[in-house]
Amino acid sequence: MHVTHEDDLTAEALFRSGDDAAGSEAIISAIRDIINADMAMLETDPEEVMISQRAEARLRAALSRLTGSDDTPPTVLEALVLEALDPLLRDWLERNLGPLVERLVEAEIRRIMADGVGAKQLEADDAVV
């Protein structure tokens, strides 16, 4: 399920309206929808996954702890922490995502090129034999 910006505004409006239970539930529901969409992407072809299984397990555990694995709504403190983390995470992503993606793409291109060179060498060796 894709969470729209409109969903974010609704959750934020509920939270700010003073209806902590409804606002908190809407926020957690939106976070769970995002996590479920992200986890669905992780369950694709293993060749396309860019993180190790160990890193994925750690990510799942951390996200589960953060959002609560059961249907218990978060406390006001948890909701405030999630709200405070949002700008920090956005800032970190703005500063680090570009270089991180660039580094990963370069490494993948090098790996593909090395595999291609290795395959050409094998073809050349087979032609000689």
Note down, in words, how this protein is organized.
- The protein is mostly helical.
- It has a domain at 1-74.
- It has helices spanning 5-16, 20-42, 53-67, 76-128.
- The radius of gyration is 21 Å and the shape is elongated.
**Could you report the average pLDDT, rounded to the nearest whole number?**
72
Poorly predicted segments: 1-9
**What structural category arises from helix and sheet content?**
mainly alpha
Q: What sort of overall outline do the alpha carbons produce when their principal axes are compared?
A: elongated
- Give the percentage of residues in beta strands: under 5%
The main β sheet shows up as: none
Multimeric state: single chain
Order of helices and strands: HHHH
**Termini gap:** 55 Å
Number of helices: 4
Instruction: From the alpha carbons, calculate the radius of gyration and give it in angstroms.
Output: 21 Å
The amount of helix comes to over 70%
Number of DSSP strands? Answer: 0
Short description:
The protein has a domain at 1-74. The chain has four helices and no strands. The protein has helices spanning 5-16, 20-42, 53-67, 76-128.
Q: How does the SSE layout of this entry go?
A:
Blueprint: H1 5-16, H2 20-42, H3 53-67, H4 76-128
Helix pairs in contact: 1-2, 2-3
